[in-house]
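HUMAN: I'm a chemist; might I ask for a sequence paired with its structure tokens?

ASSISTANT:
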Amino acid sequence: MRTDVVIIGAGPAGIFTALEMLRRGSTKKIIMVEKGQAIENRRCPKQKTGKCMNCKPYCHITTGFSGAGAFSDGKLSLSYEVGGDLPTLIGEQKAQETINYADKIYLEFGADEHVEGIGNTEEVKQIRMRAIKAGLKLVDCPIRHLGTDKAHDVYQAIEDYLMANGVEIMFGCQCNDIILDDGRCLGVVVEDSNQSYEIYADHTVIATGRRGADWLEKVCAEYGVAHQPGTVDIGVRVEVRNEIMESVNRVLYESKLIGYPKPFKNKVRTFCQNPGGFVSQENYDNDLAVVNGHAYKERKSENTNLAILCSHNFSVPFNQPIEYAQKVGELTNMLGAGHILVQRFGDILDGKRTWEKELAQSNVKPTLPDAVAGDITSAMPYRAMINIINFIKSLDEVVPGFAAYETLLYSPELKFYSNRIKMTPDLETNVKGLHCLGDSSGWTRGLMMSSAMGVLMGRRLAEEA
């Protein structure tokens, strides 16, 4: 097969690459390769069965058109300060301008016009003051909340637009390899359920998301794509009653707080806060079960959940941060017999495991019903656990009651985007014709920054003669 541009992965980075090319009037032929299904065919059976069915050959929540992020919560962070390190590559002003541009596209395809976290200036000042006293930094970030349910409609409209305008999307098709000759990428090798294909292209765009980060790391190592081990995030998802988070939820919707707790002073941050949300399970390759969180526009719970992530940076001789995080997840899964582990914060401080009967007696009822009560400290690395405990205690000064005995911690929460591809501000790698975007590239973390990176790639390809 022959095309002008082949895009591997139909997450936000890949989608917005194709979208921007069309908006710029490009007539280049575009093929997108996605191993998951079209958005209208993505369904998680857990809504009916009440438990994770460990779908094969992939999890419908993490794989398919629009990627993993859209089906977890669908929050668009509208500040360049949130969503990864792309601003350090292209500049803060350009990053913010591109975010604003991408946001308008989301609005054109039906995103909610309401923006959370703006106004309420005096109340924000009070929250910031408490954060400063606790040694934490509050990052202002307006949020456009698509919602897990409404994101489906937005991305369905985008999928329809792409296909109606000539973009060929090969669903159920997996990329196995890239084709190189004399230092130039000539295309990719893909396969569906029936056969294998070689797709030759002038430009190959790899945007495989967090799920594809491990595969991309192997490709880089095999073919000499310049990269470096970056940060890996290991943490927990915390769940409390809405009453505890009420002031923050109302004023900010999502509180993005960063700290460097003693004694290790690693970066620890909150991420993906879901007022009235639900804790969820996602399955990655090799049956790795990780925890995440959803928030719907209409359906609400009595709890708020958010991630607390501890960033780890490794130096020589170790250069396998993704594998390290996977081992932590595998050990936790082992303790939970393949399920997510949940433990009360007070039990962690008391040095004991949590039992099911204790969860039943608590004010905080788990929104992930098949999570297994146990002891996450038996699997969590000491350094990460101490960082998380001390960060939660600091958060209690900002949000009184956050460090209550009954506060629930779910594990493992892992973010796979540690492989940082070396590239120019024009998104060029050291291999001609090869471009790497989105979370798998190590430069972005989340829907909006990935979308913005796709916009820049689309402009670059549309402008080329």
Q: What stands out?
A: The first helix runs from residue 12 to 23. The mean pLDDT is 92.
